[in-house]
Amino acid sequence: MTELYAPARTTVILAILFAGAFVMGCAEMLVVGMIDLIAVDLVVSLSAAGALVTANALGLAIGGPLLTFALTRFDRRAVLLGAIGAFILGNLVPVLTADYTLFVIARVVIGGVQGLFIAAAMVTATTIVPPQRAGRAMALIIGGFAMSSAVGMPLGTLLGQAIGWRGSFAGVVAVGLVVLVIAFVVLPPVPASGEHRALGQARYAFSPRVLAVLGVSLLTFAAMLSAITYLIPFLDQVTGTTGAVATAYLLIYGVATAIGSFAGGRFADANAALTLIVGAVGVGLSLTVLVMFGANPIVAGAAVFGVGLFGMGTGASIQHRVVSLAGPGAPLASSLPASAVNAGIALGAFAGGVALDSAGVTAAVVTGIALAVLATGAAWATSAVRPATAVPAADRVQVAD
């Protein structure tokens, strides 16, 4: 049931959910901007430092849904506060210790509670607004993660270069504490629904047609992160750019992802299946330009922008296609795109790291091109997939389009 509040309080609640998404997104991507600093300080290889990205993504992709299912009977307010608190504790690990293994474990935990936060924040946001504004409320939370790439990651990287990479994580902890205090004051109670139908929805949410489309998202983001995870070393070795100038490329990437995530909704409404094809092709072409002309700083910047724009431009289309294809399983299936994206991030960071160790940093980008080709093929192959024509009456649920 929707519980409406005064507009001013609703705005404050949505703002703190946005802030939570923003700070969690910053922590997730900080490793990308400071991968070289982390590798040197922890005395590990670049690919080992890249495994920190993989750990966070796997935690979100696997741990997020598991935690959400396990805590489904708890009030969403308690879940959100617990998730923020666990997030803060997890990010204290790199601040207080120099143990690489412990850092990897902490990143898995951080990813899991991040996924839990996303699910609980979506429920809370759609509970406090009228049904006709539910989509915009969810988009605001997604926008928090998009803005973390556009603003938070470059600023955190600059801070890390100035005072050390641990200082950036200390900043995340400090902001997280502020968010936790405000959240404790303003978040309303949101009791769990009396309906526990996840198991019944599972056969629709995990149907072959839905999994096939989720595979498109996995491959597209794997292609992106195979290159972007190791962008700083690429810029150093190929483009000849380091320090604050290299950080500007992260800003370019972040702005592109923000534009793509917000603008992608319009294309999803027009033709989601086609948008997935165009997005995969765009990522592949952008990475090809980066490999061929990456020595030119301007062209490299344009290629990085293209990767972020085309890749994140597919986000709304994946969500649209998955919810449409899942039918009665749409409520459960709507949580799966985030898992697919983060599984792709994990795969991309791992595959790029293996390629880097074998043949150098350019090989990581070439690996991304190969994954983009696979994503294009998968997007084309699934473009004709349609929802089941008939659904048993007992399984029908109302799904907002």
Report on the structure:
The protein is mainly alpha-helical. The chain has 2 domains: 1-196, Growth Hormone, Chain: A (Up-down Bundle); 197-387, Up-down Bundle (Growth Hormone, Chain: A). The chain has helices at 7-33, 35-42, 46-70, 76-96, 100-127, 134-163, 165-186, 198-205, 208-228, 231-239, 243-293, 297-312, 315-326, 330-333, 336-359, 361-382. Helix 6 (134-163) crosses helix 11. The longest helix is centred in the last third of the chain and has 51 residues, at 243-293.
Distance between the termini: 18 Å
Low-confidence segments, given as residue ranges, are 390-401
Number of helices: 16
Order of helices and strands: HHHHHHHHHHHHHHHH
CATH fold field value of the largest domain:
Growth Hormone, Chain: A
Membrane topology: Multi-pass membrane protein
Subcellular location: Cell membrane
Organism: Microbacterium salsuginis
Domain Major facilitator superfamily (MFS) profile: 13-390
Q: What is the topology?
A:
Blueprint: H1 7-33, H2 35-42, H3 46-70, H4 76-96, H5 100-127, H6 134-163, H7 165-186, H8 198-205, H9 208-228, H10 231-239, H11 243-293, H12 297-312, H13 315-326, H14 330-333, H15 336-359, H16 361-382
Helix pairs in contact: 1-3, 1-5, 1-6, 1-7, 2-3, 3-5, 3-15, 4-5, 4-7, 5-6, 6-7, 6-11, 9-11, 9-12, 9-13, 9-15, 9-16, 11-12, 11-13, 11-16, 15-16
Pfam families: MFS_1
InterPro entries: MFS, MFS_dom, MFS_Efflux_Transporters, MFS_trans_sf
Membrane topology: Multi-pass membrane protein
